[in-house]
Amino acid sequence: RSCSFTGFSTVQSRKLAKSLSRSSVRSRMSLKPPKAYNSLQKGAPLWDPKPLQVKKIFEALKKGLNEYLEAHQAELDYLSGRHKDTKRNSRLAFYYDLDKQIRSVERYIRKLEFHISKVEELYEAYCIQCRLRDGATNMKHAFSLCPSTKASRESLVELYKNFQECTEDMCFIEGALEVHLGEFHVKMKGLVGFARLCPGDQYEVFVRLGRQKWRLKGKIETDDSQTWDEEEKIFIPNLHEKFEIKVTELRGLATILVGVVTCDSINFFTTKPQAIIVDITELGTIKLQLEVLW
Q1: pLDDT at position 146 over 80
Q2: Is 253 strand, coil or helix?
Q3: Nearest to 242 by CA among 261, 260, 265
Q4: Contact in structure between 63 and 116 (CB atoms under 8 Å)
Q5: Residue 152, phi then psi, degrees to nearest 5
Q6: What is the spatial distance between Cα 53 and Cα 201, in angstroms, rounded to a whole number?
Q7: Under 8 Å CB-to-CB from 102, ≥6 apart: which residues?
Q8: Residue 85's pLDDT band (cuts 50, 70, 90)
Q9: 10, 89, 92, 142: which one has the fewest Cβ atoms less than 10 Å from its Cβ?
């Protein structure tokens, strides 16, 4: 059994190597890593790809893009109906203004359709590299169980090289996919704490998404309203990072940690603004309310 597998290694592993080489993302797709992702260039340190997380983000992203497409298609149908009625009995200026709106919506729909096709193309390429990487891993494991020969050692070296190339291509595609995730507009809606929030209390909220940070300070006024030094921040979505929110209470020169929570961004890829209320304390006595618009 081991002998037949060793004989298989010298021919089949080279065929696999050639197949993996031909399937390289850089040879199949005319993708260039954007300037924001210099770390994705050839030879740079790699992170560990996370296919399950990428799949979740891809599905949420595609669903959100299709929601936008359906909404604009409905708007186009409505405008087209008005356009026909207006052509028969209305002023010429209003007719041309409506015609401009229709053309604008049509252009936006074409952009959305291209966006969706690009995301699908990237994810399809990602899945191919993921399967090839898994195949190289399985073959490495199989060869490691065989008696060590010159042929098996050469095959292991070749498989390791193919594994590294697939890993690099997956990291490259993850970075290219992040460019298509859009923006999150996060609005501060305030703290909710009932008896825990008293006039004069001051708080600091720190929101982090990967390397992106947002630090803002707020105060509880005498009429129980809240004032914050910032109200909105734009975050660029990240495939692997979650929102991390930390709230501290400011008492003179001292700071008291109220709580730290994490929040996944998968549910934010939708056309409607998402109201988020997270428990900052374990018992939920203080909550933070945000609004996210994608």
Answers
A1: no
A2: coil
A3: 265
A4: no
A5: -70, -35
A6: 39
A7: 76, 79, 80, 83
A8: low
A9: 89
- Residues 183/236, Cβ–Cβ less than 8 Å: yes
Q: What is each CA distance from 156 to 46, 48, 128, in whole angstroms? A: 21, 21, 21
d(Cα 140, Cα 5) in Å, to the nearest integer? 12
pLDDT for 61 beyond 50 = yes
Query: Mean pLDDT over all residues of the chain?
Result: 83
Predicted local confidence at residue 89, as pLDDT: 59
Closest to 65 measured CA to CA, from 108, 113, 106, 105: 113
Q: How far apart are CA 195 and CA 264, in angstroms?
A: 29
pTM given for the model: 0.78
CB atoms within 10 A of CB 38: 10
**Contact between residue 30 and residue 174 where contact means Cβ atoms under 8 Å apart:** no
Domains of the chain in sequence order: 51-179 (no CATH), 184-293 (2.60.40.150)
Give per-residue pLDDT as tens, 172-215. Answer: 999 999 999 999 999 999 999 877 899 999 999 999 999 999 99
Phi-psi region of 288 (alpha: psi -120 to 50; beta: other; left: phi over 0): beta
**pLDDT tens for each residue of 254-270:** 899 999 999 999 999 99
